Amino acid sequence: MTEARSGSYRIVGLVVAVLALTGAVLAAGRLRLLDEAYARLFGPPDLGPITFERLSRRSSPNDALVCPPGECGSAPVDIRPPTYPLAATELRRQVRAYMSQEGAVLVAADDAELHDRYVARTPLMRFPDTVDVAFFPTDAYHASLALYSRSQLGYYDFGTNLRRLRRLLEALGPGTAQASLLRWRG
């Protein structure tokens, strides 16, 4: 290969890298603008706190609920989670790490109640969803959790909330295979 050809490949590579970086910066700015537009049009993305014991599910199919027996009143449950061989605080740490990795933002935390609330966004259109997580210690070394994910926008979520909660359960590792799907809302 000639020196001139090698130099032109370097220039093309540099131009491509600069264009990619510029595109990423512009996309990040547009994403923030999209988030702000949703907030102006539909209100804050955080739908506020819920109480699992008195939870009432929506009539529209744009939410999902994971809950251990006896913790969510009479609300119909999509998945029953297992009991994890972890202290509640360690289970909470793992959920927080996973949610952060997925880009969800922790918007509220109640340490006394072991209850966290996040705003998660769909990948393409960045629709905001509120995800509540409560942790239930069964003893010093075991705990379970309840998860409720609900969409701010739209009547139907195409299974997004249920998929989000299933992925979280799968990420928590061993024991999730025993989690049972109780209800399908398609």
CATH class of the largest domain, please?
Alpha Beta
Number of strands: 7
Going by CATH, the architecture of the largest domain would be 2-Layer Sandwich
| Assigned CATH superfamily of the largest domain | Kinase associated domain 1, KA1
User: What is the tally of helical segments?
Assistant: 3
Task: Summarize the helix and strand pattern as letters.
Answer: HEEHEEEEHE
Give the helix proportion (percent range).
25-40%
CATH T-level fold name of the largest domain:
TATA-Binding Protein
CA-atom Rg in angstroms: 21 Å
Give the overall shape, derived from the CA principal axes.
globular
Q: What's the pLDDT, averaged over the residues?
A: 85
What does the largest sheet look like?
A: 5 strands, antiparallel
How many discrete structural domains? 2
The low-pLDDT segments are 20-26, 176-180
Strand order of the largest sheet: 1-6-5-4-3
Strand content: 15-25%
Class by helix and strand content?
A: alpha+beta
Distance between the termini: 59 Å
Descriptive report:
There is one protein chain. By secondary structure, the chain is of the alpha+beta class. The chain has two domains: 1-43; 45-181, Kinase associated domain 1, KA1 (TATA-Binding Protein, 2-Layer Sandwich). 35% of the residues lie in helices and 23% in strands. It is built from three helices and seven strands; from the N terminus they run H-E-E-H-E-E-E-E-H-E. It has helices spanning 3-42, 88-101, 160-171, and strands at residues 63-66, 79-80, 105-110, 115-121, 128-139, 142-151, 180-181. The protein has a five-stranded antiparallel beta sheet with strand order 1-6-5-4-3, covered by helices on one side. It has a two-stranded antiparallel ribbon with strand order 2-7.
